[in-house]
């Protein structure tokens, strides 16, 4: 599963881990990605979305119909 949110577009960012001796090593910061199923009444079926926890909160606020309509307008295949 790729660490990419379909709602917010969050992706991994890269940086350094800095040890006590100040040695820097590369690391990757992944967003908290969840695979969730939602029933969409306008489509009459369930859709499976890869969303971050912030994306889940956006779906709770705006509603799944509005979010799915926006994703379909962007050309995302559901």
From TrEMBL:
GO terms for molecular function: structural constituent of ribosome. It comes from the Bacteria. Keywords: Ribonucleoprotein, Ribosomal protein. GO terms for cellular component: ribonucleoprotein complex; ribosome. InterPro entries: Ribosomal_bL28 (IPR026569), Ribosomal_bL28/bL31-like_sf (IPR034704), Ribosomal_bL28_bact-type (IPR001383), Ribosomal_bL28_sf (IPR037147). GO terms for biological process: translation. The keyword Ribonucleoprotein applies. The keyword Ribosomal protein applies. It holds the Pfam family Ribosomal_L28. Belongs to the bacterial ribosomal protein bL28 family. This is Large ribosomal subunit protein bL28. It comes from Nakamurella alba. The lineage of its organism: Bacteria, Bacillati, Actinomycetota, Actinomycetes, Nakamurellales.
């Amino acid at each position: 599963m790729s660490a990419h949110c379909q709602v917010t577009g969050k992706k991994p960012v890269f940086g350094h881990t800095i040890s006590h001796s100040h040695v820097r090593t590369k690391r990757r910061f992944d967003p908290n990605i969840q695979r969730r199923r939602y029933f969409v009444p306008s489509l009459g079926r369930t859709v499976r979305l890869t969303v971050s926890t912030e994306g889940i909160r956006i779906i709770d606020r705006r509603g799944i119909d509005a979010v799915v309509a926006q994703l379909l307008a962007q050309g995302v295949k559901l």
